[in-house]
Automatic annotation (TrEMBL):
It comes from Halioglobus maricola. Gene3D superfamilies: 3.30.70.1730, 6.10.250.2350. HAMAP family: Ribosomal_uL10. This is Large ribosomal subunit protein uL10. GO terms for molecular function: large ribosomal subunit rRNA binding. Part of the ribosomal stalk of the 50S ribosomal subunit. The N-terminus interacts with L11 and the large rRNA to form the base of the stalk. The C-terminus forms an elongated spine to which L12 dimers bind in a sequential fashion forming a multimeric L10(L12)X complex. Forms part of the ribosomal stalk, playing a central role in the interaction of the ribosome with GTP-bound translation factors. PANTHER family: 39S RIBOSOMAL PROTEIN L10, MITOCHONDRIAL.
Length: 176
């Protein structure tokens, strides 16, 4: 079914708006994936704040103009499923990686982060990025370590004094 000019403009504007606010983009070829699989993928994407779109390549090229993801235009050939990560840069990569394990037909074509295009082989790198909560907990543990070490060091001085006094007491009791 042909899409009218106004509908095309609306699609381009919507994808451009999504791409402008996205943290990362993963592009995959989903030919051969069954409807049940795609439904599960879309559900997983919604739960992880990932926007999935299937857009014609000509419209996608226009929509990505002027965004950080213009670098992927050369990889747009054949059917493309776009996964835009909105809150966590690695969310789309994790979802696509897990989905590809169960579906041999699903193939990741390219990914991009902050205007830099990465090959499909770099999917693991992006998928292993910590989530926001994980990164905050790692940061807090690093910030807490010096304070913990200071408290342990300060606590060691009276502890050593108590152990020394106990040793002197034991020595005097043994002598008596």
């Amino acid at each position: 079914m042909a899409i009218g000019l106004e509908d095309k403009k609306a699609i381009v504007a919507e994808v451009n708006e999504t791409a402008t606010s996205a943290l990362s983009l993963v592009i995959a070829d989903a030919r051969g994936v069954e409807v049940d699989g795609m439904t599960a993928l879309r559900k997983e994407a919604r739960e992880n704040q990932v926007t999935l779109r299937v857009v014609r390549n000509t419209l996608a090229k226009r929509a990505l103009e002027g965004t950080d993801y213009e670098c992927v235009n050369d990889t747009l050939a054949g059917p493309s499923l776009f996964g835009f990560s909105m809150e966590d840069p690695g969310a789309a990569a994790r979802i696509f990686k897990d989905f590809a394990k169960d579906n041999e037909e699903f193939e990741v074509k390219a990914l991009a982060v902050s205007g830099q295009m990465l090959g499909a082989e770099q999917l693991d790198v992006l998928a292993k990025l910590p989530t926001r909560d994980q990164a905050l907990s790692m940061l807090m543990s690093v910030m807490q370590a010096p304070a913990t070490k200071l408290v342990q060091t300060m606590n060691e001085v009276p502890g050593k004094l108590v152990r020394t006094l106990a040793a002197v007491r034991d020595q005097k009791e043994a002598a008596a």
